[in-house]
Amino acid sequence: MDFENRIQIKDTPKWVGKEVLLAGWAYRKRDHGKVSFVDLRDGSGVLQLVVTSGTKITGLEKNGWGLESVISVKGLVKERPAKLVNPELKTGNLEMEVKELEVVSATGEALPLDISKDIDKIHLDTLLNYRPLTLRSLKMQAIFKFSEKIESSYREFLKGDGFTEIHTPKIIPSATEGGANVFRVDYFGRDVFLAQSPQFYKQMMVGVFERVFEVGPVFRAEPHYTSRHLNEFTGLDAEIGFIRDEFDVMGKLEECIRYIAAQIEDEVKEEDRKILDFPSLRLPKGKIPYITLKEAIKVINKIKGRDEEALDLDTEGEKVLGQYAQNKFKSDFLFVTEYPVSIRPFYQMPTDDGKFTKSFDILFRGMELGTGAQRIHNPKMLTSNMQKHGLNPKDFKDYVNLFKFGMPPHGGWGLGLERFTKQWLGLDNIRLASLFPRDVKRVNP
Amino acid sequence: MDFENRIQIKDTPKWVGKEVLLAGWAYRKRDHGKVSFVDLRDGSGVLQLVVTSGTKITGLEKNGWGLESVISVKGLVKERPAKLVNPELKTGNLEMEVKELEVVSATGEALPLDISKDIDKIHLDTLLNYRPLTLRSLKMQAIFKFSEKIESSYREFLKGDGFTEIHTPKIIPSATEGGANVFRVDYFGRDVFLAQSPQFYKQMMVGVFERVFEVGPVFRAEPHYTSRHLNEFTGLDAEIGFIRDEFDVMGKLEECIRYIAAQIEDEVKEEDRKILDFPSLRLPKGKIPYITLKEAIKVINKIKGRDEEALDLDTEGEKVLGQYAQNKFKSDFLFVTEYPVSIRPFYQMPTDDGKFTKSFDILFRGMELGTGAQRIHNPKMLTSNMQKHGLNPKDFKDYVNLFKFGMPPHGGWGLGLERFTKQWLGLDNIRLASLFPRDVKRVNP
After folding, report:
1. Which of chain A's residues have a Cβ under 8 Å away from the Cβ of B407?
2. How many domains does chain B have?
3. pLDDT tens profile A132-187
4. Mapping DSSP to helix (H, G, I), strand (E, B) and coil, where does residue B159 land?
5. Residue A380 sits in which domain range?
6. What angle do CA B213, B216, B218 make, to 5 degrees?
């Protein structure tokens, strides 16, 4: 069969009572003696095929087409009796009576996994080892359709708000934040690094376009092996010029999140919601609340009945704060502000007393979704701050020069797309929100 | 001054006769004794400011504000006399009579370059060394607004055609094409590589979503130092399932290019066209023409009056073919097909006689814009082809397994965004189409 006249499953409702050509994967199969029911999956949906002894089957491997074999079928599109409608599928009220079936690529009978049922019961490592297969399950598909929607709404909001989309280099001459946790690359015999964030470059671009954003890979050589860390993830970055302080950045980020929430609630398809079963976002009627780090630690100590002098939030602390934000503000999001200078990078703007930074983290259901701040835009303050952090301004010549070229007060944020998806959908592990996750132990597939 | 009530320059036409607050960079300055004319640039445009002895100037460095200093100004928006209208600016019919001027960040008088005029006369190396400054010129800005538009039209077309946007890993366990020219990364003590293309991963994703695309960085450790090579560029990739052959891929790519062309001709702003002065695309009335490699080499030999048995196209050959496509087909684009198996990667589908691949290059005004092909989807053919290319299928286990999970006939393409921009705008060097270009010699800024 030729694919020229092939239609996609999503279009079958227009062809009821007519013969069409479909092609896709054999997702499920139920043999009942003379008749077999095959759920055909293509890039647009799933449709039940009725294969009988009258169906003409062709193809080189016509006897070995197991699940996930690619087949093309010609037949009549029909409505199913009302009591047999499958409510889980968009085209669950239709089926095809197959006249001809061609086996295009047979898998034999030996797939390592049956992805059509109980994907949730498969062990995470197995899910990831067989990623090209397991991603085909409707549930995994729905996760990445969801994540694509977060990204496109993010882009749509920012473009609509005068931001320019940029691509900054991932190969950089020095470790962005001056810290460890960078991957070293052999670049024609010399050492360069993979960007931990587009930080310096997005700041440079504020001087050009005033408001910029980037969606791109971010590399972190952090040795953590947890359910919330990836060593390569998709960063959602933005940087804004002519702000008053970090609250302008937080305000813009809040607008952006509310836009994404509205788009997702609007547009995620019914059947995806059935498959994913995720809770709607809780956003407070007023503004997303904020709390200083100092207050946050007090709150955590009180709830946990302890008295620790924590310097920063840990995983457990973030969880407690997530619950606190739910109870007190009915909010899935919480800003934490006023991080001390000692635990934040050198380029964050200090408060007037020099103790804190004009920075924030944003927690989403008790997990850090991202971080942001006003940046230092005065070259003298910047070099003196670098020295305080034990860095040599000469190692960051191009960055330091930027501020001699005239920079306005500015700030921005960096979020992780995979964390956004994981927390929104309530996934157990961030690896499920990455197509081909990279962690300390895994670079395959 | 506070930025809260600041408006952007693009909005000044709504405020004629009223007092507003603007902020931006001092792009140009002309002193005429008691009165100075300052062109203020912000992220949205340029407006002339009239600064007189009556203007109250404040700010820490109020005497040292040279070009590119950040200033904020309060004053009256007025129409300029008809004969003084500046036709090169969108708001060239307006100016502001400045009452108050605050110097927010002064540059002093010592900028290394004047970017407001004759940017074309600045040497390429200087343009690139001072990228955070030179990108601010209206011409450089316009290049990247143009490039952003190519990208967004590319995305828009594919999303509208049922493609899913994906992000595949840039850290990969083995060299994609089995060749040299990959950068090695130290990944927690073991050697991994930077992806030369999303090739294997986009193929895996055809099994999931049928049609996918990716916009993301691509890394090539090619030692070429030319006006058309970058070692990191932005790839525009796509992959499509259920094709008949490479001509289906070429057909979809042509649709995509025609869509982008229509969007750009429609939407690139008047004033950007004045600044960039680029020729409109020439697309033939019928289909974009194609020519086999063998025929192409004959054409080149004939035009050049020589008789060489070239195996592939070189830079000069591509240029000659570009001219040939203009003359014969009135087309900026030309497909070259039927590349021999020996010079193409192992995963490209061979023709029935086994001599050629079902592949193509697409030339844009005499330069390779990208490449594409139908891929092998049969696991046995694939492993035997790998062996013919001297590769061990065991080194590509996850990729080989993919085809045991059932794959349809499929194919796709990879283009370079920077080449698209360079050729369309007629830029001399591809580095001008990359914000922060990376080449054999350059990783700064």
Report:
1. 70, 105
2. 2
3. 999 999 999 999 999 999 999 999 999 999 999 999 999 999 876 656 799 999 99
4. helix
5. 134-433
6. 115
